[in-house]
Specification:
The protein is of the alpha+beta class. The chain has a single domain (about 15-230), classed as Fumarylacetoacetase-like, C-terminal domain (Fumarylacetoacetate hydrolase, domain 2), CATH 3.90.850. It is about 15% helix and about 30% strand. It binds manganese (II) ion (MN).
Length: about 230
């Protein structure tokens, strides 16, 4: 037990439930990949595959537990859902070889990259950072993590999201432009990845707005589900 004293109480450790154990996965940082499915890149008005993968972040404490109700985010009239496969890392490093990249993965979950699309469009137009459109409070609902040791490393399978029971997004993990090993390799040239890091791997097409009171449910074959409700 550390005897280190702090001038204020240390912040709580952000964490996510893991299937089959009471122990939690502690979140260090959240990395996200932009435009990793061609049909979503096109619906955002971009040319898919024309550039290497690019990354943005959310704060660790943006995570929201599965099934939670969250306040409707401030400052937006265009809150979008983006269902994504999330990889939870148990180790990391710099310049990771794609052939060894999956050795870093502890497990997987379904996550929703909530996005204030109106703020993102304004930031893009002004050449400003995306942070306030992506990294706001409660912007990362995430389901229970399942261990790679049990489910393997899913590279194909249905990924879908419905709002109030109506299907909005539907795709297949095999439609990713950059595979998870390629993502980990590229990201680890930007930063030293580490245990506790989460990687949101991008979303298929069909992103759209949610209203106060809406309930979203995302599902990834072989991985699991994530549910979130927006307060009225
Ligand atoms: Mn996304």
């Amino acid at each position: 037990m550390s005897t280190q004293k702090y001038v204020i109480d240390p912040p709580a450790q952000a964490a996510i439930a893991v299937e089959g154990t009471d122990a939690l996965f502690p979140v260090r940082r959240i990395w996200c990949v932009g435009r990793n499915y061609a049909d979503h890149a096109r619906e955002m008005g971009k040319d898919p595959g024309a550039e290497p993968p690019f990354f943005f972040t959310k704060p660790a404490d943006a995570v929201v537990a599965d099934g939670a109700a969250i306040p409707f985010p401030t400052l937006t009239d265009d809150l979008h859902h983006e269902i994504e496969l999330v990889a939870a890392l148990k180790s990391g490093g710099e310049n990771i070889d794609p052939a060894r990249a999956l050795d870093c993965v502890y497990g997987y979950a379904a996550g929703i990259d909530l996005t204030r699309r109106d703020l993102q469009s304004a930031a893009r137009k002004a050449g400003r950072p995306w942070d306030m459109s992506k990294g706001f409070d409660n912007s990362a609902p995430i389901g229970v993590i399942r261990k790679a040791a049990e489910i393997g490393h899913p590279a194909s399978g249905r990924i879908a999201l419905s709002v109030n029971g109506a299907i909005r997004q539907q795709g297949d993990l095999s439609d990713m432009i950059w595979s998870l090993p390629q993502i980990i390799a590229a990201l680890s040239t930007n930063v030293a990845l580490a245990a506790g890091d989460l990687i949101f791997t991008g979303t298929p097409s069909g992103v759209g707005a949610m209203r106060p009171g809406d309930a979203a449910e995302g599902e990834i074959a072989g991985v699991g589900s994530v549910r979130v409700t927006l307060a009225r």
